[in-house]
């Protein structure tokens, strides 16, 4: 089996990405992650659960991981987008053309044919781990 074939058949595994101290609440940070297809740029969003924050209603998930690549501007900028809420769902607005992407599933709200890739991400103690 060639190296390229082996890489394509790799399963997703959990790997450490950064620490809680590297994250900025209610904002995104960009990171590199190794995937079966090769390295990828990922936008990590940390939305601490806080029922007293009216702009971001109570939600179960604190960490989200999406493609950092904006398909509309063809630039790696999603982590620099504006985090907010649309109809109760946490979203990020691209900093270039302002399309909104749901953090939970990467769906673009303005164009249902566009969806960013997402990854499972979680805290293990103070470390951030991603499944890639």
Enter the CATH topology name: Rieske Iron-sulfur Protein
Number of helices: 1
SSE topology string: HEEEEEEEEEEE
Molecular shape: globular
Strand order of the largest sheet: 1-11-10-4-3-2
Provide the domain count. 1
Class inferred from helices and paired strands:
mainly beta
Rounded Rg:
15 Å
Overview of the molecule:
By secondary structure, this protein is mainly beta. It has one domain: Rieske [2Fe-2S] iron-sulphur domain (Rieske Iron-sulfur Protein). The protein is built from one helix and eleven strands; from the N terminus they run αβββββββββββ. It has a six-stranded antiparallel beta sheet with strand order 1-11-10-4-3-2, with no helix packed on it. A hairpin with a 2-residue loop joins strand 2 and strand 3. It is globular, with a radius of gyration of 15 Å. The relative contact order is 0.22. The N terminus is likely disordered.
Summarize it.
This protein has one helix at 3-8, and strands at 14-19, 27-35, 38-46, 63-67, 69-70, 75-76, 82-86, 89-93, 100-102, 118-124, 127-131.
């Amino acid at each position: 089996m060639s190296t390229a074939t082996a890489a394509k058949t790799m399963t997703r595994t959990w790997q450490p990405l950064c620490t809680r101290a590297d994250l900025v609440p209610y904002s995104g940070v960009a990171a590199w992650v190794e995937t079966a297809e090769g390295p990828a740029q990922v936008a990590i969003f940390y939305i601490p659960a806080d029922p007293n924050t009216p702009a971001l209603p109570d939600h179960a998930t604190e960490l989200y991981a999406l493609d950092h690549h904006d398909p509309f501007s063809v630039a790696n900028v999603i982590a620099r987008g504006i985090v907010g809420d649309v109809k109760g769902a946490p979203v990020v607005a691209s900093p270039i053309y302002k399309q909104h992407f749901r953090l939970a599933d990467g769906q673009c709200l303005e164009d249902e044919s566009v969806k960013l890739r997402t990854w499972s991400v979680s805290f293990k103690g103070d470390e951030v781990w991603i499944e890639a």
